[in-house]
Amino acid sequence: MKTVTVKQLAEKQQHEAIDVIDVRMPSEYRDVHAQCARSVPLDSLDPASVMQARNGTAHEPLYVICRSGNRSAQACKKFVDAGFDNVVNVEGGTVAWDKAGLPVVRGKKSLPLMQQVQLCAGFLTFVGAALGYFVHPYFIGLSAFVGAGLMVAGATGLCPMASAIAKMPWNQCGDGGCEGSCSA
């Protein structure tokens, strides 16, 4: 997989237009993102659609950024698996971009998605236990269901609760704040 450092990418941006997609969740993107990045969340990434929307610049490199480089590497693999090999992972992601003093857009802060999942799972587990004790023992099944879901998420890396919470209105850009531009 091709990679580029944030400093190399910033240097390239001074001389030519670059196309950067940020594959984090919309709420993470809204919190802080490289000024030149546009939001294309990993969970809904369709490599063919992204390349088609580039209006004839599919032969130019597509730079992929996330928080620290892990999700962008996964996204690059999706592109390569779909037959698009001109994708470049941005090493260190938005954290490195911001730390290097490069231009970022800061927006509305929200709780990180995993913290939202923890709050929801904890609440449902507590409610299931309380209802099981005070109302009917069958309500313990709610706690068991949440626990089983957490075990599956831990084993597979896929969390339906996180996917559902990510689609909630407070986790979407909604205000048009999901576009960026990287012109020279």
UniProtKB/TrEMBL annotation:
A Pfam family name for this chain? YgaP-like_TM
UniProt KW keywords: Membrane, Transmembrane, Transmembrane helix
User: Transmembrane region positions?
Assistant: 116-134, 140-159
| Residue ranges of domain Rhodanese in the record | 14-106
List, alphabetically, the InterPro entries matched.
Rhodanese-like_dom, Rhodanese-like_dom_sf, Thiosulfate_ST/Rhodanese-like, YgaP-like_TM
Which protein is depicted?
A: Inner membrane protein YgaP
* Provenance organism: Rubripirellula amarantea
This protein's gene is called ygaP_1
The source's domain of life comes to Bacteria
Origin organism lineage? Bacteria, Pseudomonadati, Planctomycetota, Planctomycetia, Pirellulales
